[in-house]
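To close the chapter, one final illustration. This time we ask the reader to focus less on the individual chains and more on the assembly as a whole: which components sit near each other, and how the overall shape emerges from the parts.
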Amino acid sequence: MKWLMVLGIVVVAILMTLYEWPKINKEQKREKKAFVVLTAGSVILAVVLVYFPAMPGPTQLVDAIFKPLGKLLEQ
Amino acid sequence: MVDKGKISAMQLAFLLYLAITSTAVLIAPAITGGIAEQDMWLAPIWGSIAGFLTVFIAYRLNTIYPKQTIIQYSEKIIGRIPGKLIGLLFLFYYLHLNALSLREYGDFVVGNFLPETPMFVVLGTMVFVCAAAVRGGIEVMARTATIFIPLIFFLFLFIAIMLIPDLEPKHMLPIMENGIGPSLTGGFLASSWFMQFFLLSFFLPTLGKKQKGLKWGMLSVIATMLTFFLANLISLFIFGDITSTFNFPVMSAVRYISMADFLQHVEAIVMAIWVTGTFVKIAVFHYVLVIGTAQWFKLSDYRQLVFPLGFLLIIMAIWSAPNLQKVAHVLGTTWPFYDVLVHVLIPTLLLVAVWLRGKANGKNARKK
Amino acid sequence: MKRLFKPEKRLLTIVLCCIPIFLSGCWDRTEVNDLAIIAGVGLDRTDNGKIELSVQITNPKAIGGPGMSSGSGQSGQQPVIVKTGTGKTIYDARSKLQEKTSRQLFEGHNRVIIIGKSLAETGIRKHIDFFARFPIPRLRANVFFTDGKATDILKVIPSFENGESAEAARELAELKIGMNVTTKDLLQQLASSSGDTALPKITASKSKLGEGLKVNGTAIFKNNKLTGQIDDKVTRGLLWLTDAIETASVTIQPKDAEGYISFKILRSSTELIPTIKNGKWKMIVRITTEDDVTENETKLDMMDPKIVEKLEKQMEKSIDKRIQLVLDEVQTGMEADVFGFGEAFERTYPQKWKQQEDQWDKKFPEIEVVIKSDVKIRRPGRSGGPQGVPQEKEKKK
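The assembled structure is written out below.
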């Protein structure tokens, strides 16, 4: 089942690239870079999450940072 | 400017109103009711103070840098590296906040209407339409909001009127049983929605007439406060002490509607309000994220970022919270402080920095 | 046109055409003919402590034409189907029930919840949770108590409402002859500090003319367990006290005349005014009603202001008596605060309430109740003086 999800993620990424890539002008180097970085980053994160769904997320990070203040509101 | 579109101040007010009230109405009565109890109707009033403050700060900063957003002027004010860091914090914050809103929407739809449908399908379809709207640009989004506003307004009014026979105002008493404290704490939790009005910072540069921005921004805060107030009041008058035991009190209240035995089972209306409202909300936040990212990377166009960031948004939504309990807990404890940091503290410090620099420059100028 | 034939465009078109295939697999698709629409739910407790869940399912075949005379009993289509399942919790019982049902159980149209005596005696709080948590049931459903088994009530086929006893029960509750308690109301009362509540009692009545349901009396729950029952007459007093009286008639016998006079209550409001003076807790019950005369057996002239004034006084006494009746039985007898006295004190004296909250159980039976009723007879009805009496023999006083 997991490989199917990975396949799905990759297919989505390919579809996005196919749709957007021809629209970016050849001179827009920065744009191309940003697009590649974001897409690749998302795909990697998604695939990692497929295999490690319990990985602590950004919410836990925020929760950990603001914990001392949050205690004030906890009852 | 990355987006060349221009909108009017009224359209901006509509956009912000829809973006902020949609999730506020959904879960805020439960969150504020848990702490403020029968004083929960006061919470939005206290909370709105934060709304007025953030609108004012965003407007002041905009008058100094009229063509820029916070991502751009933070670099100008405190230098390149710290500015970039602040920009990154804002981008991360908006991605995270939007992911949580998306997750709330997903949990709501899956929990109440489509229990068998996988979460990522519910989220994916929503993000896809939002991304399409963002790709269309600010003008498209503003027009969508203008179309939705009367619809949502009348549906909300309809719900409020239908519930009148079941309201019991006695649930409000005793007012301030434990002093002003609980309602203020509830107001602090509620202010987390009002502080989102800092979004104004990203939209003010697109305004045709700048002077009207402040007025309409404030009007939007007032409208949000009233809606929020009404939602809390209705939930309180119907459920009283048990309001906070429901995860979506307004939803439970609407399911309770029964007029003359035949006008009942109208929760599809709530669904309509929340799906349209959430659509605007996610589109607005996604737009801000995309525009902000484009400015952060100093790109000339933002459209190619819409889909990759949308994809990232879905992943974040699934990743950001293991379950609804966690979301509600974080929103009820630590999240408001995060809001204060991003939406009030940093902008205020920036404003102070500008002011100090202005003073120093003034002195230097005089010396010269 | 040329652009359409670019290779990547063609690929995109193919992919886009493939996407709708996935859309057809709608996960939450439910067709009406796959659903077993539940009209009423009954809860009982088995001897070994399990929950027995009974559901009344509307029979779709019978809905079409109940009036069609197809030779009585020939087709034998029951208007409803009653099924039972047992389990540790309601949901457990429900899943057992689902095993026996070929259609998917659907509570979205559930109108009544009937609690059997066996379950009521062991406490109802923990079982109500299901109706507030599971996404499908509505909080509008009316809750009843029955002295016997809940299943038996669901099996009754009343003459009205297409033979659906659940609908009949709901209509009875709406008439407000007895208490009208929805799931939401019950949740609120259970969550109040005393946890005392009252539920209308529903009974099946069988006669030659057919089966029927009636709401007669009220079941009193103390701390979510059944402690006693009060009859129809005492229930009236309870309705007066809780401001729930709506369609009611009052019949009195005037002191100085033969026969009875009946009144119809048009409007009535009850106010609970708690007072604490010198540490003495007192509850003032202020009742104001407006009535019309509907029947006059006596020879009294209903147009005479003096007579009307006397009648008003007498009615006030009769209302006081009814209320006293319920106070005697429930306040001092069962010591259950189903009137909302505790909440009234909490709202008016939040500080003093907090000090006394723990001792409320002891304090409640000792509270002095002062009833101040104010009856206003508004209209004499269609006739003024008594009918069928020669003018000169009318009693004028």
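Chain B has a mean pLDDT of 83. The first strand of chain B starts at residue 258 and ends at 259. With these observations in hand, you are ready for the problems at the end of the chapter.
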